[in-house]
């Protein structure tokens, strides 16, 4: 953790440079919020004109500001910003929020000025947040360095780090209407200095923060982000909304792996490696965050549904399934208890339908019974406005049960403690508003529809599963291998223990015959040309050549065919190798992503890779579990165990090659793309039949 | 259309049978709502005790109620319901809403009573809605036959038909908070008589209804539902939330097609055939409905984004792409107009970012410019609380532009008119609430996030595309074919013009040799056994037999192998057919769904069908466009045109077989499953290599 960022969150004193007495100016808003926030440290204002603001003096010179002062909020004209940073440095201020805009976001001139700011800051040991940001918020300290309309957000356990200031502002107002709060909010702006990777561990340190949400438009340093996030997610959940999917163009690639791995795939696998949950929408991100903030993690995926109406119960059952959850099979004791309590026409099987007449007591009693069932890992309570009671009467009774359960929990590492989450599908609006507030005050998350409650329960189960895996599995360690003496593809693979077939270059038909004789028939013959990447596309592969005559005929035909198709291709001859026994064929590849490093691909090989797209990706280096999961995700992988008349082959050897190739790719940054296609998987062992590689010189 | 349902919507008089003076009784609620709704027809009350309610007499006998009275709302004890229906019939009342519960939903006894109700009703020509429903609502007539807490929903253009009364009630309250209204609401209850298929054309008739949403737990008669819905969607959009996905079990199947076609697939293809849009969640259903209610349909998929902040603009661009929409390429005139109006650091390319300082006038001016660009088919305006202005000031200016555009439209068939929809991503809560109400009053749909606005614009584009297709394509007409003389699979296929290979049964090796000689080598030999469905699984297929010796050896080996694997299988001999030339192989199948009839499947064939799942489904009979779309959806179909070194084959012949097989399946209800696997697709023509069929005796 980087203690140089502490002044942003725990300053002993704050100065606003560019404070203003005009209410329409940002420099007024920042000063107002700083005071209104209730910040307990020293607050000082610097302005061009002396005077008074909020009963405090306006200094005209930063050097006049008395101690202590650790943090500056700078809202001065763009051009004056570097000078102001220098003044801060001289004054001993080690952190500054640059609210001003007009830098990199407006073009080359602004970018140059931004660089100057960073240079000046570095030379004085000042850390910068922004420019072009709306600052920071801490509801618990409290501290508000923004100019947003008051009041501050409610206190809460969600830390929110955002690349977009406008998105921050909109979310703060939206959250107010939804009734949830935040622990800390950080707007990163242009990230001239401090970026998301710096900030993530910093907000994770805050004791009030129980979950971190990231709005990301990019990543500054993918490799370090994954490392930092991986550490954070061991203790606190992180959810990211990564935008800019539609901007990620496809680059020209020399391999199938390269063609299929876009930058969005890279973000997906990087988040997976780091344990960061990727949300599809902003609403989903906060639906998950509110559950992770307030609910214990379940011990399993078996959920009960408690409802007073059939329809929403069916929606709930559907949406549990869509989120990877299961309908708990209630035990006999539970069924008896529910039967004896509920009217005969109620349904005591999950979903438990108490009927429309259900009273507040019925809700509470049934919830208690369900929570006591060891087959139940969590409960979704469906609460539309009850026909005969007020919703808030039901809320009151439910909260008693949920709070009692929460009280029993606690102690030990919060990340590892387990319980039974309860999510409320509080359906309606005006008739449920009071109940919603009551649940909110009691830290019970509510959702307007069962679908969203199910998504939230799904996030809890996913988080629990992630932590289980982290406990039971060792993080991948890279293999120690000797450096290959030569950079040829085969030698490189051999150095990592990946078996290839002996392959020899023949420059003419006679040499091919000689080599074939040496290797022993049957053999395979492939065109050798630096200009032909996809050999079978041009008739450049001849399989199962059984005797000398077939070889000679085949050689002649191949050359003739290729010369007609690719007259300009440089032909070096043919590669000859032994025919390998029958087996299944898969593709294993690696491609270097500019942000995150080597991405691994596994899937259905052959020439149809890009059409069929039966492939899975993960970030190198891989551990056993990650390699196994890639295999499980594809049909090519699932059928390794055999399917119908297809005999099973050696799945473990495939996992072995995946791990080894991931280490190769991880340890050889000069390898841009490497692809084994096909990897022939035999009943015992595997053979890399064809390999192509592209590396930087 | 069924005029017997008219009294539910246009009664001249209504009687509440079971009206009550006790405010906690449903019979009080119904009476109260009927009067409070402002219904203009006659209102009468029947009760066990005489007296007065809401200044109206309580009759003790239905026969005493004066004319006119067309509709009865029945809230009497369950047991008395049949008698009450009979009284209605005798009194000349032709429609009754049965609010009472305690019928089929509580077990066998209740089901019997429900049947009795239907019998009594039929014998008197009375149509029943319910039992166990909450009745109907019409905000425009107005008429409210429910007992729900007042006030009635707002007036609107959305008709809502629901299998669940509780879901109705919750949605009505939720809609109130969201600020949108309804035209009509119908709760169907147990559907003893009137079901969703009856009701759909009825609500479509209402002039105030612009879009219909269905909450469905099942379908009463799938074939009629598709027919009725297909008619309705020609004129008005229909959106369905079909729940109960998780309940649909997989049944045992004799073919790959049968194994892959679950009941959810059947609903998907039935909705597709009927032009009903299937929503994933309740929120999505109403997001779409509000757009379809209020916006013109776009002429294309090119959307512009107008924003005052970069972040939400990026989210918007992403989510347009995820909803099948495109970022419009603004024309030169637009770019110039925007450049000259906006500050230099604004972005005039789509997404158009006016920067945070954007004024209400800037929003309006830029929207107007964008709407005038012929490359722009619709606009998403992103409106977080602007830092320097009130949101409602922006709303006011935007509404002027949008309303002016709307005024230009109009005239002609509403379903066919086109315009430029504008959806607002109104981000925030308290600071945007007033603006939200203003947009609502002006019939401009707003959404809290760009993702949901994009989903709504996507629904508009999808609806426009659906109507285009309906105009340009003829609905499928079934082929006229002669009835096959024999039910054998080959003859059946031949009768529909699907070519199979001549195939002959040989009962021993000698007969096989004789037949092979007759057909000409090379031949294919397949085991003939009623007990072996998947022949290649047991080594029961031998390909490319080139001569007599190979045939005789092959026969002996096959028999030996199968006897060891399947000693109990009845072996009739082998089928011999000519070896067919190389080509691509696909699977084409049909399976009878109990609700909707024949479902067609197309995709990657061979033995890996169920593992690979590269298949698409559609409801028979197929037209050209539907068959082509099935092909386009699968990799097996896309590569028919050729891919890399795979040569192109005869795609048109595949479409031809798909259509013909769909006609066969449609016209032969005795065919439970029929599957051509593989269908060999040659450079010209196709051959059904292997066919299996299961039919009811």
Mean pLDDT reading of chain A:
91
Number of helices of chain A: 23
What structural class do you assign from the helix and strand content of chain A?
alpha/beta
Spatial order of strands in the largest sheet of chain A: 3-4-2-1-5-6-7
Overall 3D form of chain A: flat
Distance between the termini of chain A: 37 Å
- Based on the structure given, which CATH architecture of the largest domain in chain A is correct? 3-Layer(aba) Sandwich
| Low-pLDDT sequence parts of chain A | 473-486
By CATH's scheme, which homologous superfamily of the largest domain in chain A applies?
NAD(P)-binding Rossmann-like Domain
List the quaternary state of the chains: homodimer
Provide the β-strand percentage band of chain A. 15-25%
Determine the CATH topology of the largest domain in chain A.
Answer: Rossmann fold
Query: How many runs of DSSP E, i.e. beta strands of chain A?
Result: 30
The CATH class of the largest domain in chain A is Alpha Beta
Helix content of chain A: 25-40%
User: Biggest interface: chains and residue counts?
Assistant: A-B, 84 and 84 residues
Radius of gyration of chain A: 31 Å
Outline the biggest β-sheet of chain A.
7 strands, mixed
Number of domains of chain A: 4
Short description:
The structure is a homodimer. Chain A has about 700 residues and is α/β, with parallel strands linked by helices. Chain A is about 40% helix and about 20% strand.
SSE arrangement:
The structure is a homodimer of 697-residue chains.
Chain A: H1 6-9, E1 13-17, H2 26-36, E2 42-46, E3 51-53, E4 56-59, E5 71-74, H3 81-91, E6 95-98, H4 108-124, E7 127-129, E8 136-138, E9 143-144, E10 158-162, H5 165-178, E11 184-187, H6 196-204, E12 211-216, H7 222-232, E13 238-242, H8 256-260, H9 263-274, E14 277-278, H10 282-294, E15 302-307, H11 310-322, E16 326-327, H12 332-341, E17 352-353, H13 360-371, E18 378-383, H14 391-408, E19 422-426, H15 433-441, E20 446-447, H16 450-472, H17 489-495, E21 503-506, H18 509-519, E22 523-528, E23 541-545, H19 548-565, E24 573-578, E25 584-593, E26 597-604, H20 609-612, E27 615-619, H21 624-633, H22 635-638, H23 651-667, E28 671-681, E29 686-688, E30 691-695
Parallel strand pairs in A: 1-2, 1-5, 2-4, 5-6, 6-7, 10-11, 10-12, 12-13, 13-14, 15-16, 15-17, 15-18, 18-19, 19-20
Antiparallel strand pairs in A: 3-4, 8-9, 8-11, 21-24, 22-23, 22-24, 25-26, 25-28, 26-27, 28-29, 28-30
Helix pairs in contact in A: 3-4, 6-7, 7-9, 10-16, 11-16, 12-13, 13-14, 14-15, 18-19, 21-23
């Amino acid at each position: 953790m980087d203690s140089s960022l502490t002044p942003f969150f725990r300053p002993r004193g704050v100065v606003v440079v560019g404070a203003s007495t005009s209410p329409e100016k940002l420099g007024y808003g920042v000063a107002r919020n700083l005071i209104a926030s209730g910040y307990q440290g020293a607050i000082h204002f610097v302005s061009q004109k002396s005077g008074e603001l909020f009963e405090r003096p306006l200094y005209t010179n930063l050097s006049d500001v008395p101690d202590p002062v650790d943090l500056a909020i700078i809202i001065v004209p763009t051009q004056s910003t570097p000078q102001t940073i220098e003044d801060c440095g001289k004054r001993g201020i080690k952190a500054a929020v640059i609210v001003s805009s007009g830098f990199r976001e407006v073009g080359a001139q602004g970018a140059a000025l931004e660089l100057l700011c960073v240079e000046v800051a570095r030379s004085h040991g000042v850390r910068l947040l922004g420019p072009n940001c709306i600052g920071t918020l801490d509801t618990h300290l409290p501290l508000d360095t923004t100019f947003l309309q008051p009041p501050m957000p409610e206190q809460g356990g969600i830390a929110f780090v955002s690349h977009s200031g406008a998105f921050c502002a909109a979310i703060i107002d939206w959250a107010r209407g939804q009734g949830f709060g935040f622990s800390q909010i950080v707007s990163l702006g242009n990230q001239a200095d401090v970026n998301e990777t710096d900030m993530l561990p910093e907000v994770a340190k805050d004791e009030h923060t129980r979950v971190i949400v990231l709005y990301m438009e990019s990543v500054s340093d993918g490799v370090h982000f994954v490392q930092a996030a991986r550490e954070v997610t061991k203790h606190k959940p992180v959810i990211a909304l990564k935008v800019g999917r539609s901007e990620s163009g496809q680059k020209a690639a020399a391999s199938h792996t390269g063609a299929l791995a876009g930058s969005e795939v890279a973000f997906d696998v990087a988040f997976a490696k780091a344990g960061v949950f990727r949300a599809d929408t902003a609403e989903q991100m906060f639906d998950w965050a509110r559950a992770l903030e307030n609910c214990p993690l379940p011990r399993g995926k078996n959920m009960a549904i408690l409802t007073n109406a059939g329809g929403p119960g069916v929606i709930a059952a559907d949406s549990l399934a869509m989120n990877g959850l299961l309908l708990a099979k209630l035990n006999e004791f539970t069924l008896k208890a529910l039967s004896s309590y509920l009217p005969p026409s109620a349904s005591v099987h999950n979903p438990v339908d108490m009927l429309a007449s259900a009273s507040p007591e019925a809700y509470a009693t049934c919830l208690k019974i369900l929570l006591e069932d060891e087959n139940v890992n969590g409960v979704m309570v469906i609460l539309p406005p009850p026909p005969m009671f007020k919703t808030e009467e039901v809320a009151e009774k439910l909260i008693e049960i949920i709070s009692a359960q929460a009280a029993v929990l606690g102690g030990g590492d919060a990340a590892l403690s387990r319980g039974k989450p309860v999510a409320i599908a509080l359906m309606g609006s005006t008739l449920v508003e009071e109940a919603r507030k009551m649940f909110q005050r009691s830290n019970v998350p509510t959702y307007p529809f069962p679908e969203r409650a199910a998504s939230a329960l799904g996030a809890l189960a996913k988080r629990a599963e992630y932590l289980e895996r982290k406990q039971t599995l060792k993080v991948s360690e890279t293999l120690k291998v000797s450096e290959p003496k030569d950079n040829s593809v085969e030698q490189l693979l051999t150095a990592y223990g990946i078996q290839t077939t002996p392959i020899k270059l023949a420059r003419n038909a006679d040499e091919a015959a000689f080599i074939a004789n040496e290797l022993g028939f049957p053999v395979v013959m492939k065109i050798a040309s630096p200009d032909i990447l996809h050999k079978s596309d041009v008739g450049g592969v001849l399989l199962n050549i059984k005797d000398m005559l077939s070889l000679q005929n085949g050689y002649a035909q191949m050359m003739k065919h290729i010369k007609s198709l690719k007259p300009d291709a440089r032909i070096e001859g043919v590669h000859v190798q032994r025919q390998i026994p029958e087996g299944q064929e898969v593709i294993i590849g690696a491609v270097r992503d500019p942000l995150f490093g080597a991405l691994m691909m596994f899937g259905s090989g052959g020439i149809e890779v890009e059409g069929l797209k039966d492939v899975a990706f993960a970030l190198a280096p891989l551990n056993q579990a990650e390699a196994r999961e890639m295999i499980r995700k594809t049909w090519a992988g699932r059928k390794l165990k055999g399917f119908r008349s297809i005999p099973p082959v050696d799945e473990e050897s495939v996992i072995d090659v995946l791990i080894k190739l991931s280490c190769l790719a991880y340890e050889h940054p000069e390898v841009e793309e490497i692809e084994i296609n096909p990897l022939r998987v035999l009943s015992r062992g595997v053979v890399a039949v064809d390999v192509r590689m592209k590396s930087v010189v």
